[in-house]
Prior knowledge:
The protein has helices at residues 28-37, 56-66, 83-93, 96-99, 123-133, 144-152, 163-166, 169-186, 198-209, 220-224, 230-233, 246-257, 273-277, 295-300, 305-319; strands spanning 4-8, 10-15, 40-45, 73-79, 102-108, 137-140, 190-192, 214-218, 263-264, 329-339, 358-366. It is α/β, with parallel strands linked by helices.
Amino acid sequence: xxxxxxxxxxxxxxxxxxxxxxxxxxxxxxxxxxxxxxxxxxxxxxxxxxxxxxxxxxxxxxxxxxxxxxxxxxxxxxxxxxxxxxxxxxxxxxxxxxxxxxxxxxxxxxxxxxxxxxxxxxxxxxxxxxxxxxxxxxxxxxxxxxxxxxxxxxxxxxxxxxxxxxxxxxxxxxxxxxxxxxxxxxxxxxxxxxxxxxxxxxxxxxxxxxxxxxxxxxxxxxxxxxxxxxxxxxxxxxxxxxxxxxxxxxxxxxxxxxxxxxxxxxxxxxxxxxxxxxxxxxxxxxxxxxxxxxxxxxxxxxxxxxxxxxxxxxxxxxxxxxxxxxxxxxxxxxxxxxxxxxxxxxxxxxxxxxxxxxxxxxxxxxx
Length: 367
């Protein structure tokens, strides 16, 4: 008899479903189907769409689209790049109907896809206001000045693996330290997105020991891939923050083992194959990889079902007050071993950085 287990529908607290504005890459409908196939029934979507989710009207537009989706319950982060957006967020947060679909605020401390970098002069004000509202604040932690200086060193280069040196570990560590200090000062409920370095893990571990209200997530691509995969992936392995050396990968797994890491979230960020592979310079390819459908089988190769339940359901549900129910439940056949192929997945982008990887465990029913 097959080895069947059940879990609550998983939560992916970091996805980019691309709608509105980038429907050629993905839609809420296509990516929700991909999520469901991977056992993810609740997703938290990021604000870097077009228009960006920085106004109440933009949020309402996204909610209206999500209301037509049945495969996955989609919640939304609100972006802030200038002071007026903070006022828009407060209006939305104070609206009971809108708040049910809001996860909190998302800040980009440096540019990534969508150019949503926050005006540095208002960052502390945002930490203070989120503390006053009791709203979770999530940050993409990279230091803009360090990244800019590193990028100058590799001007006119074409080796895509240099992307990891152009956004070095020190960039993440500096930004995390800066943000943790603000969270500590203002008592802000602060969450670090896609943490990727040993230095970052150490900073979070220390902050937690000091009683700072800080949580963090890591992404499967930083757990299962490294700089050694650039030879295989080329520009398909380009994301922000970038792939790291194996020492960093090992530190992330240790952070999971000792409880420093609170969530695993995919940063699911589809681009078309043409967008990723057509630039003459691979370093000009857009950053981001899909992953919402492959998270569960990858994790089942390394973690127990109870660990996955904690990292991909209990903790994100609590941190972002999602009220995701324990029902429906997903049934997984742990005995099914299979090979990941993009042709078998549901994301509109039709590729995966995990092509050819052998995994175990497949969702067989959702009840």
